[in-house]
Amino acid sequence: MEETEIIRRAMGLIGSRKTPAKAAASRANGLKGGRPNGTLKPLSEFECKCGKCPDDPKTYCPRGRAILRRRAAASKVEAGQVETAAA
Ligand SMILES: [Zn+2]
User: Which of 2, 19, 21, 49 is deepest in the core (most CB within 10 A)?
Assistant: First the structure.
């Protein structure tokens, strides 16, 4: 076996070794649950810092970002670029 191949396989074993930290992270991720449930947080729960929502939402405003994010997602649905679970 070529030396580089030996090193490659050794590094593969080192890299894939399951450490206690990785095992704990994996368990924590599992507890977060699977797919998102599709319910959206009401916009009223986002604080508006720009005072211009919803007419002229700003990216520095938490509510503005939520509005812009939802508009972008809606435009993708309208353009047929994504399928929705509801459809
Ligand atoms: Zn705002």
Answer: 49
Ion ligand 1 nearby residues (CB, 5 A): 48, 50, 53, 61, 63-64
Residues near 52 by Cβ (< 8 Å), separated by ≥ 6? 58, 61, 64
- State how far the Cα of 15 lies from the Cα of 18, in Å rounded to an integer: 8
With respect to residue 84, please indicate whether it lies within any of the assigned structural domains. no
List the domain range (segments joined by +) for residue 59: 3-29+42-78
pTM: 0.54
Ligand 1 center to 1 CA (angstroms): 63
Distance from Cα 56 to the centre of ligand 1, integer Å: 8
20-51: pLDDT as tens digits: 999 999 999 999 888 877 888 999 999 999 99
